[in-house]
UniProtKB/TrEMBL annotation:
The keyword Manganese does not apply. It comes from Trametes coccinea (strain BRFM310) (Pycnoporus coccineus). Keywords: Cytoplasm, Exosome, Nucleus, Ribonucleoprotein, Ribosomal protein, RNA-binding, rRNA processing. One of its GO terms (cellular component) is ribosome. It comes from the Eukaryota. Its main location: cytoplasm. This is Ribosomal RNA-processing protein 43. GO terms for molecular function: mRNA 3'-UTR AU-rich region binding. The lineage of its organism: Eukaryota, Fungi, Dikarya, Basidiomycota, Agaricomycotina. Belongs to the RNase PH family.
C-alpha cells in the first residue's frame, strides 16, 4: 500500500486557514486572545513583557523646516518639523518666547482615526507633550527673546503620525526633541528706530538645548501584567498607561498616568520607573547622538 504524503500546496492552505482563524478570533475576542498569549509569558508580536521595539531616528529630512526629525518605534512612525516665526511677547512675560507643540493623528495613519478635526486622543497627547517639554525646560523660553517687550521667537513643533501602531507618545516626544536639537535659527536683530526685526540667513544658530527628556510608556493589563511599549492592539485592552520621563542624565523628570487606578500602587510605579531607567542605561542614553 502506497504511503500518503501531504503536498506543499495543501500544507500552505492549512497554514493560511489557521492564520485566518487566529485573526478572526483576535478580532472577535481580543481580550481572551491577549490573555492566552500572556499566560504563556509572551505577547502577540513575540516580545517579552519588558521588551521594547527597535527605534530609529533620522534628522534634517524636511528641507523647508528650521529643524526636523523622523522617528520609527517599531511600526509607529512620526515625522516632526519645527517652524520659527517672529511675534510680540506677552505683556507679563516680556522676555519669554513661545514653544507650541502639536501632534496630528490623521485618518491615513490608522483605521481607528477618522477624517475631520483633531481627535480627543490627539489633543490629550499634545497637552501631555507640552507638559513634558515645559517641565523639562528643553528650550528655555527666555532664550527665544530677541528684544525684551518687542520681539521673540515662536517655535511651532508640529508632529504628524504617518503610521500608528501604538505608543505614539514615546515616539512623538523622541521626534520633537530630536527636531528641536536639529533646529537652526537665523541671527535676528531688532532695530528700535524702524521698529522692525531683521534676520540674517548667513548666520544660523542652534537652539540652547537644556534637558533631553525621553519617555518610556507601560501598559497595565488586568491589574497584574506590566507591558512595555504597548502596541495598538494592546492599548484598548489596558487598564492604565504609565509614562516615565527620564532626562539625559538618567534622572526622573516626571511620571504620568492615564486610566484607572493601579492595582499594586506604589510597587507597580517603582517597577515601571526602574524598568525605564534600565532601558535608558542600556539603549536609549545615546538615542539623540546622531541629531
Amino acid at each position: 500500500m502506497a504511503a500518503t504524503s501531504t503536498s506543499p500546496s495543501s500544507s500552505s492552505l492549512s497554514a493560511e486557514q489557521d492564520a485566518l482563524k487566529a485573526l478572526t478570533f483576535q478580532r472577535l475576542h481580543p481580550k481572551t486572545y491577549l490573555e492566552r498569549f500572556l499566560s504563556e509569558d509572551l505577547r502577540p508580536d513575540g516580545r517579552e513583557f519588558d521588551e521594547w521595539r527597535d527605534i530609529s531616528v533620522i534628522v534634517g529630512s524636511i528641507s523647508t523646516a528650521d529643524g526636523s526629525a523622523l522617528v520609527r518605534l517599531g511600526s509607529t512612525t512620526v515625522v516632526c518639523g519645527v517652524k520659527a516665526e517672529l511675534a510680540e511677547p506677552e505683556l507679563d512675560k516680556p522676555q519669554d518666547g513661545f514653544l507650541v507643540p502639536n501632534l496630528d493623528l490623521p485618518a491615513i495613519c490608522s483605521p481607528r482615526f477618522k477624517p475631520g478635526p483633531p481627535t480627543d486622543e490627539a489633543q490629550v497627547l499634545s497637552d501631555r507633550l507640552n507638559e513634558v517639554l515645559v517641565a523639562s525646560g528643553i528650550v528655555p523660553t527666555s532664550s527665544l527673546c530677541i528684544e525684551p517687550g518687542k520681539a521673540v521667537w515662536v517655535l511651532y513643533v508640529d508632529a504628524t503620525c504617518i503610521n500608528y501602531d501604538g505608543n505614539a507618545f514615546d515616539a512623538t516626544l523622541l521626534a520633537m526633541v530630536a527636531a528641536l536639537k536639529n533646529t537652526r535659527l537665523p541671527k535676528a536683530t531688532y532695530y528700535e528706530d524702524t521698529k522692525r526685526t531683521i534676520c540674517s540667513r548667513k548666520i544660523m544658530e542652534p537652539l540652547p538645548i537644556g534637558r533631553l527628556p525621553t519617555s518610556f510608556s507601560f501598559g497595565i493589563f488586568d491589574g497584574t501584567h506590566i507591558l512595555a511599549d504597548p502596541t495598538s492592539f494592546e492599548e484598548p485592552l489596558l487598564d492604565t498607561t504609565i509614562s516615565v520621563v527620564i532626562d539625559e542624565n538618567g534622572g526622573l523628570t516626571s511620571v504620568m498616568q492615564l486610566g484607572l487606578g493601579i492595582v499594586g500602587g506604589d510597587d507597580v510605579l517603582e517597577k515601571c520607573i526602574e524598568a525605564a531607567k534600565e532601558c535608558w542605561r542600556t539603549s536609549r542614553n545615546s538615542i539623540y547622538g546622531t541629531s
